[in-house]
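Give me structure tokens for this 66-residue protein.
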Amino acid sequence: MIDALVSARKAANVTQAELGQRIGQRQTFVSKFELGERRLDPAEFVKISRAIGADPYAIMKSAESD
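Here you go.
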């Protein structure tokens, strides 16, 4: 699911730093969850998905089919 989230961020042309600003976190927060060093709780996942203009439910569905 994180891979799909990273792909959606890149497709939206949003940098890690920009995403961090949008969600009120530092770039390092974004880097850590993208690298798998930190887990996201469901509320964070939804907030991040929406911050990049992606549908969190569509991301979850795409992860299910992989």
